[in-house]
What we know:
Blueprint: H1 4-11, E1 14-18, E2 23-27, H2 40-54, H3 59-74, H4 82-86, H5 96-100, H6 109-119, E3 130-132, H7 140-145, E4 148-152, E5 155-158
Helix pairs in contact: 2-3, 2-6, 3-6
Amino acid sequence: VLPMRVLGDALGAEVNWNGKTATASMNTTNAKARSANYSTEDLYWLSRVISAESRGESLRGQIAVGNVVLNRVKSQQFPNSVKGVVFDRKNGVQFEPVENGTIYQEPATTSILAAKMVLEGTDMVGNCLYFFAPALSAGTWIVKNGSYHTTIGCHRFYR
Length: 159
C-alpha cells in the first residue's frame, strides 16, 4: 500500500481530494515522472540494502529504509556516498546485511523501484537517521539516543 499522494508525486500527476464526496482522484493527463541524476552505483547499493533490510515490507516501508540511507549520506556524521554509508564501520557495523552477507543477494524488484523513488526524491520519514526492527533487535542505543519519529511495518524510525 502506498499513499496516493506519493504515487502521484512520483508520476508527476495531479492528486485531488473532494471533501464533499470523500474521494480522491488522480489526473495523469500531461503527467511527467520526476527524473533525477544519480549513479548506477548508488542505485545498485541502495536497492541491495533496501532489499536486504526490508524484503517483504510494503513499498512505503522500503522507501523509508532507503530514506535513512540517503539522510546519512547528507549528514556530516556519516560517509558521503551510498556505498560508504552501507559499509560504514565507524561505530560498528551499521547494517546487519553487511555482516551476514545478504547485502550481496539480488535485490527484489520492489526494492529497485523503492531505490529509484528515493533517489528521485520520495520521502517517508523526514530527516530520520536510524531505524531498527524490534522483533530482531532491542535497538537500545537508538532508543536511548534518538528521537522516535514513526513506525512503518516492522521498523521503528528515529531522528
